[in-house]
Amino acid sequence: MRILITNDDGINAPGLHVLEEIAADLAGPGGQVWVVAPAFEQSGVAHCISYAHPTMVARLDERRYATEGSPADCVLAAICDIMADGLPDLVLSGVNRGNNSGENAMYSGTIGGAMEAALQGLPAIALSQYLGPLTGGLDDPFEGARRHGAAVIRRLLDHGDWTSDADFRLFYNINFPPVPAASVRGVRVAPQGRRQGTNFSVVPYTAPNGRRFMWAAGGAQNAPARPGTDVAVNMEGFVSVTPMRADLTCHVSLHDMAGLFEQDIPRETETS
Questions:
Q1: Nearest residue to 67 via CA among 23, 25, 96, 37
Q2: pLDDT tens-place string over residues 124-152
Q3: Bridge partners of 214?
Q4: Known binder of ligand: residue 96?
């Protein structure tokens, strides 16, 4: 198996090294693991691509590359150039330092990399490690993902829905809970949730030269969410697996609004 891995924390991030171990386990002795990751941290860039300027790509070692772009840029660089002679069988993005459950999924560069792979017709999975008080004192805060990652992915590869219809291919978002590996209670398939009463915000800052800046700030990651959603099961100690696709349409509203514009909108009366 040929596996491409990327992330949004950067080429030197600890979570990427964890994902390399997971990918090597999955690929097996005769497989290949290719790394194409951002040269610098790209957290919060979502699915952005470097459309308005070129992106430098540097070869660091055999099957290991760094780009100046986003995770989606990395996937495009891999499939359109670096691996163009033999596309990957699987694309893995992560392991992110911090969760990408709930509303975080909308901002996540980790998910953006997996989404781009799915848009290009490739099987893709995003992986993130929820952090918290119970992981803060661990020698390896990624031990949950390290110990359980390969098994969860294998189950998905063997039994998951890898539907590739005429529009948008499914991909998967996996989040490992904020507990030691031995305390992980199991795996739950769960929809994306939303933490209640918390949002991303901005903290303004004035530099010594008088210029105005801002820091983006996240909300409380332990805020409650609807039971059964990814956030909720993560907080209960379960790994969450969420099937996703790059389709933001609200299909329920499509049905409810079906007759709203069946009649033409009246034109304003023209006056001379």
A1: 37
A2: 999 999 999 999 999 999 999 999 999 99
A3: 204
A4: yes
25 is in an annotated binding site: no
Residue 9 annotated in ligand binding: yes
Residue positions counted in the chain: 272
Question: At 106, is the pLDDT very low, low, confident or very high (cuts 50, 70, 90)?
Answer: very high
Does position 6 have pLDDT exceeding 60, yes or no?
yes
Helix axes 143-159, 14-27, angle to 10 degrees: 40
Q: Which residue has the tokens 């760094």?
A: 66
Of the CA atoms within 13 Å of residue 249, those in its CB half-sphere come to 10
158 is in an annotated binding site: no
User: What's the mean per-residue pLDDT of the chain?
Assistant: 95
Q: What is the DSSP letter of 89?
A: S
The reported pLDDT for the residue numbered 270 is: 60
Residue 272 has what pLDDT? Answer: 52
Domains and CATH numbers, the chain: 2-195+225-256 (3.40.1210.10)
Under DSSP, is residue 213 helix (H, G, I), strand (E, B) or coil? strand
d(CA 132, CA 178): 5
Tokens (6 digits) for 170: 């499914």
Q: How many CA atoms lie within 13 A of 64 on its CB side?
A: 10
